[in-house]
Amino acid sequence: MKNVKRRGYGMIFLLLLPAFLIILAFYVVPAILTGTMSLTNMDHRLSWNFVGLQNYKQMLQDAILSRVFWNTIVYVFGTLLCFNVTFGLLLALATSYVAERQGERTSMFFRALWLLPRFTPPIVYGVIWLWILDPTRNGLLNGILSLFGKKPVSWISQYPVQVIVLTNGIIGASFGMILFYSAITSISREYNWAAAVDGAGWLQRIRYVTLPLIRWPLMFVTAYQTLSLLTSYEYILIITGGGPFYRTTVWSLYAYNEAFGGYYASYRFGYATALTLVLVLISMVASIIYWRVFRFREMMSEPKIEVV
Amino acid sequence: MAQVKTELQQVPRFSTERLRVEAKREKRKERTLTFFIYAFLIVASLPIILGYGWLLLNSFSDTLAYGVLPKGWTIKNFRFLWELPSRYYPDLWRTAWNTLVLAVGMTVIMILVATPAAYVISRMKFPGRSMMLAMTLILHSFPGVTLLISLYYVLRSLNLLNSITGVFLVKAGLMLPLGIWIMKGFFDNVSWDVEMSGLVDGASRLQTLYKIVLPQVKPGIAAMAIFSFINGWSEYIYVITFIQKKESWTLSSYVNSIIGDFQFIDYGLLSATALFYILPVLLFFIFTQKYLMTVTVGGTKG
Amino acid sequence: MRTMKRLTWLAVLAAAALLLGLSVGAAAQEVITIRAWTVGPDTPAFYRAENLVTAGERLNQILEAVGADVRVEVDADFWTDDWDSFRRRVILASEEGNPDVVPDILVSSHLDIPVWASSGWLAPLDDLIAPYWESTYEDFFPHLWESVTFDGKVWGVPQDIEVRMVFYRKDHLRALGWTEEEIADLPRKVEEKEFLLADLVELAKQMRDAGLVEYPIVHRPTSGPDFFQFVVAYGGEYYDPATNKLVIDRAALEDTLAFFANNVKEGLTPDGMTTWPWPPVHRAIAIEGTAGMQITGGMWFWAEWQRDFGITEEELWENLTWTLIPAGNEKGRPNQLGHPLAYMITAPSRHKELSALLITLASSVDLNTRHALEAAKLAIRRSQTAFPRFLESEYLAEAAKLVPHQIFSAGHPASGRYATALHEAVGAVETGALTPAQAVDLIIQRMRQAAGDDLIIK
Fold it and tell me: Is C10 part of any domain?
């Protein structure tokens, strides 16, 4: 008996080892280093001067920070609810419908289309949106407006929050779309046949068969994308630069600016990493809430193979 | 609608007439549904279609009217394919090769490393299982940029600075948690009965994994592969920070150099290089969708 | 058999040794490699790297003529990505301090000098350039040396200099009734304080009322040091070189911010100006003429407008003129800001004297001129202004007239953050989020975080 147990554990160990090592070396260790950095006042000189909790105290006195906090909340949950989850799901459902009825090609076309923003270099994506939102008559939206004789609107300065939600959402939706589509198409055909035999139309099938079976991806995408959105800043940086006077500055952008942003980068790595640590804390809280609410533990059903 | 209802009322309950009427109603419903779905897809995709259409047109345009609208047909923007913008740019094809190595390397590592790890976490019980999974979720909350300095130290101590290998190991490390979660979800959905029957038939666990279970999670592998490839192909900041030699640059640095500091933009050249950049990923996507999304039919009800 | 094998082995060894000896003998020439990292990122500025390479070639010609057995190879890198990644690269390499990784020569902004020198990464140049002072460096425009001096020492050799200015659309001036003489007289009026910022605003209002333009006044949307020009225009200062501290001049800052706030209030500047991307700003002033004035222009726009928008130089001369930034009040003076780049020598370098020699050779009149012509920059040396090739460019000659009124960003490590804070404040008052007084308080708060006690608040 003992032999079997050791061999079982041995195989687990072997299969897990590569993943464990890589994650440890390139994720865990840097994360710990970064955490330690937040206790220093490191700047461009890259010197480890430990100053304890000074950075955190400074955060409490930072007047802009509360505004940044609320911006972040609005941005993350706005984009998440409108786009990443909802749109992702709608797109997956729509394209799977098209795949079933009309054929793979059309479905693949739309899915590829929605994936395009995700692998376009951020700068190029930014350039496209800056053309669409151009404040003069030459932009797409203002050009259309001028056809109707209206004056150009400065979209970015008038509707900054909507702009960042939309531009990030279009990218975010593709994550859910791909994952949900894979999940939907891997639902065993027997389920669909059984539902059809029972007289269910497509919509009912979605409601009673498909959605329940993709609960795991749904919840995973929600939780994971919350974290992704909390840490995303690239597109905001390029398109609104933090918005008219901090209106679209989210927490991660603020941290980035402290480290590398502005006319001449300040290289305040100590403060920036402290800000990051707080962000991680917020993410941890969010993850715990998701874990409970979605009952992830339940989803991690008892494993099929007991080692002993 | 009312007409159909009265029609139905007039017809006896179980006649062929009724079936025919009901079939017509079904067909109409289906057509409406199809219409709405297509309308939704097209309207929602409009910004993307217009935006990328503009990009496409720009790459073939000679100059730009009002600085934004394409005018004049030319392929001179594509001269970057055989002519460097300046002597100080790295060779385009070398750069493209580096990018490919980075993307493929990352995808391969993800598939080879995440899949077995996810299988183990999904199927087997061992201490620390939940905690590991939870930890990987937490790790995702570190924005890549703040890890930059720390990663520099790690890479330097491992002597992996200045190499594409170093970069894709880092990228893989940062993406593995996601891969494991995705694959675990797909493994969970594979019915146990199928696997059990394989074991009963005398196959070892590894054999069942390979022959029976893996084919059923192909869509999961497809999803993970496409994310990894995209991620690897788009990598910019690690390449530019950890790689000093211009010969080891990737296409994202190249495109970035073309734009410069955003004050002046040669839209034509930018669009042409962007298209060149996007094309391989599109092809990869089509490839994975065609070959990896096929799901095996059969097995038993799970 | 074994002796045969041994003999063959000996023969092979002997042959190898002979070959080795011959090759070593042939390569008695020593080659010293000097590495340089130069920043771009704009493509036309590639002579920053190229000039060093040419300097190496010229040095080799001399060495050959003299019959020396040494040659110099210059491995110059021209960075085409952006400033940030270049600086990160320097920081990460310099932190290690390994002379095999850190280059010998750096070319970067003068703003990097206080930061890098105070970290001990640069070598002071006073003694290194002393031997060449009379032959080369005395010829440099004297005020340029201010920008590379920090803590009483010289850390860089000026390589690149430009001017900034206010651009005006001549076609709109003509439409308002200005004659060609009046237009040509404008630069003088600004210089002699006959045309002040208030007059500029008046002019903008006239353009607005006549319906000539959509945006009478536009300015740079992104962060930059240009806004200090207005602080000086209102008689303020921002740096005290004697104590090496940054100065926060409340009154001048408030006047500056009030200027920008009022422009928005009067409908002269769009309130979202700081969110505009750059291309529409350029198009508005240079192509479409929907802007009346660009008050934070730079001379390098001229070359870029031609290259990226396909405008001919004739059209530019036809439609645009420029002046210094006008004074704002009695205390102030008209001025323009320059942002010099400089050659620097790193502290870990093993070939400091050789690097200094190369820099001197790269600073010859013809090499500096070819850089100026290609990248639309100004002369570093006085003799350049008499150099025939330099004079061929009418644009450079005209722009050079602004040089006497040049100011520079503060030579202090937190100077860049000061520029960022000021830009933030401009954005705040333009969007109406803060009043000028509140915005000044914000600047003070930001600068306290950045510079600690290194501040003088007036």
Answer: no
Nearest neighbour of B126 by CB, restricted to A18, A182, A307: A307
CB atoms within 10 A of CB B98: 22
CB contact under 8 A, B264 and C41: no
User: C420 and C319, same structural domain?
Assistant: yes
* C101 and C193 belong to one structural domain: no
CA dist., res. C439 & res. C457, Å (int): 15
The domains of chain A, with CATH numbers, are 74-250 (1.10.3720.10)
Verify whether the Cβ–Cβ distance C81 to B256 is below 8 Å: yes
In our burial notation (b when 16+ CB lie closer than 10 A, e otherwise), range A210-236 reads: beebbebbbbbbbbbbbbbbbbbbbbb
Q: What CATH number does residue C39 fall under?
A: 3.40.190.10
Chain C interface disruption, residue of B88, B95, B146, B242, most C CBs within 10 A: B88
CB contact (8 A) between residue A33 and residue B154 = yes
Q: Where are the domains of chain B?
A: 2-59, 90-292
Question: From CA B258, how far away is CA B126, in angstroms rounded?
Answer: 52
Q: Quick check: B26 and A201 CB within 8 A?
A: yes
Q: Which CATH class is domain B90-292?
A: mainly alpha
Judge whether C300 lies within some domain: yes
Instruction: Give B-chain residues touching C40 at CB under 8 angstroms.
Output: 88, 257, 260
Domain boundary among C391, C407, C423: C407
Best interface-test mutation with A: which of B42, B64, B66, B146 has the largest number of A CBs within 10 A? B146
- For residue A22, the distance in angstroms to the closest alpha carbon of chain C comes to 24
User: What is the amino acid identity at position C362?
Assistant: A
Show pLDDT as tens, one digit a residue, over chain B (302 residues): 445 455 556 656 677 888 888 888 878 888 888 889 999 999 999 999 999 999 898 888 877 665 567 777 888 888 888 888 777 888 899 999 999 999 999 999 999 999 988 888 887 777 777 777 777 777 887 877 778 888 988 998 888 888 888 898 898 888 898 888 888 888 887 777 777 777 777 767 667 667 778 888 888 898 899 989 998 998 888 888 888 788 888 898 888 888 776 677 778 888 888 999 999 999 999 888 877 766 544 333 33
Residue numbers of the domain that contains C273:
164-338+414-457
Buried b (16+ CB within 10 A) or exposed e, C189-224: bbbeeebbbeebbebbbbbbeeebbbbbbbbbbebb
Q: Measured between CB atoms, does C56 come within 8 Å of chain A? A: no
Query: Token pair for residue A102?
Result: 């009309």
State the Cα torsion A265-A268-A273-A278 to the nearest 10°: -100
Q: Is residue C24 part of a domain?
A: no
Residue indicated by tokens 């954005």: C427
Cβ-contact C46, C37 below 8 angstroms: no
Same domain, C275 and C150: no
Residues of A in contact with B37 (CB under 8 A): 94, 97-98
Q: Which of A44, A63, A158 sits opposite C91 (nearest CB)?
A: A44
Tell whether C115 and C82 lie within a shared domain.
yes
Question: Which DSSP state fits A233?
Answer: -
The number of folded domains in chain C is 2
Model ipTM?
0.85
**What are the start-end ranges of the E strands in C24-163?**
30-39, 70-79, 105-109, 149-150, 153-154, 157-160
Contacts of A228 (CB under 8 A, 6+ apart): A172, A175, B140
Smallest CA–CA distance, residue A259 to chain C, in Å, is 11
Within a domain: C14: no
**Chain A environment of B99 (Cβ under 8 Å):** none
Fill in the amino acid letter for A168: N
Q: A49: distance to nearest CA of chain B, Å? A: 15
C184 and C127, same domain (yes or no)? no
Same-domain pairing of C75 and C87: yes
Residue (of C373, C362, C396) closest to C44 by Cα position: C373
